[in-house]
Amino acid sequence: MLRRLIRKMSPARLIVSVYVLGILFITLLLMLPVSWKPGVRLSFIDALFTAASAVSVTGLTTVSTGDSFSVFGAAVLIFAFQFGGIGIMTLGSFYWFLLGENIGLLERKLIMIDQNRNQLAGLVQLMRLVLLLTLAIELLGTVIFGIYFYSTGESDTIWSAFFNGVFHAVSAFTNAGFDLFGDSLIRYSDDYFVQSVTMALIVLGAVGFPVLAEVTEWARKKNKRFRFSLFTKVTMVTHAVLILLGLVVIWLTEAGHSFAGMPLHQQLMNALFTSITSRSAGLTIIDMSSLHQASQLLISVLMFIGASPSSVGGGIRTTTIAVIVVVMINFAKGEKEVRLFNRSISKDDVYKSFVFFAMSVLLVIVGIFAVLMAEAHRYDLSAVLFEVTSAFGTCGLSTGITGQLHISGKITLILLMFIGRIGMFLYFSLFTSGKKKPDIKYPEEKLIIG
Prior knowledge:
The structure is a single chain. The chain is mostly helical. It has a domain at about 1-220. It contains 18 helices and 2 strands. The protein has helices at about 1-10, 10-30, 45-55, 65-70, 70-85, 90-100, 105-115, 125-150, 160-175, 190-205, 210-220, 230-255, 265-275, 295-305, 320-335, 345-375, 380-390, 405-430, and strands spanning about 340, 345. A two-stranded antiparallel ribbon has the order 1-2. The radius of gyration is 22 Å and the shape is globular. The model is unreliable at about 90-100 (pLDDT under 50). It comes from Paenibacillus lignilyticus.
């Protein structure tokens, strides 16, 4: 059946279709009365928005998750986090592993596209490792949070403590950004233990599965001459630089504003958590609307950049911004070759980075325009910019306007969340025919640029 479907449509369109069907399926489940708490009714647009946000692991919500959904509804959301976070083909691989079926060339091609990889080699082994690491990390997070919530009295029973623990652990690792507390993690604004474990889960999910695979292999090998790939080096360095940049700038901006009166250690912890969660997670320990507009602008940029490729996060991704920055530096120096860590970057990757960046900027601008038109001057540009970049970067941070948006504004955010989840590579693949174009070279002529 799978092969018959692939013959009728391209792998990219097939994967996108599965994600669309997944969102519709989650929507239908959330529309069931068993998914609601007593006295709650959910409209179709709110159910669709919640489903799209959960599958795209964004975290923007039009209703309070903890106040609206029953245990069954919360369990549906956990499944949606996994479905959208680690990818449909990873779950498909898990199904094939359980049945003992061989994963053929067609299935490997689907995995390659879903995981935004550029080669077929090693995909099956990567999927096994992704599944094992995901289950191990989420299980560890569940145990830690479950014990902590019960011991501190946050939950009355062992069952509720561990259910809250599994929800929060999966939400943090998949960077979904949903919570059952009603205030994200603001109640834990002075609880460094919950913040630290949450930040660790967020980073592990956002850094990328290939990076986790290489780090695991490095830890297993006794040979000290193990060499990390260029992808891992660029990803980890860019990730660390962006976190540090966010920490410093947010602290400097908010020290005399929303952080005023806090001890220095709490100011730094708040700035660090905000910097990390701004990349794609959406969980927060401070009210985003209370931040200085300069901080909101920086957070919007961080959300636009997002997480790493082949991770649970969205945005233009860390490697894209790294290549663009290096090209700009080289251009200023008069150098034509793009190099990172003593390796040359292919012209094709440079070309894709700028195309993806330009198209992402265009999508965000169109999204901002659409929301502004839909809301008829109800919200200023900074609030809409924050909301739109949060949707595109699948982050989920909000200044609190999501639930008050008109239907057309919500639909705009749904589309942005979906594009942010599938990524620009898969988005562009929807419009390619797959047929090889004739290699024709035309005469070159110079243009006046700049």
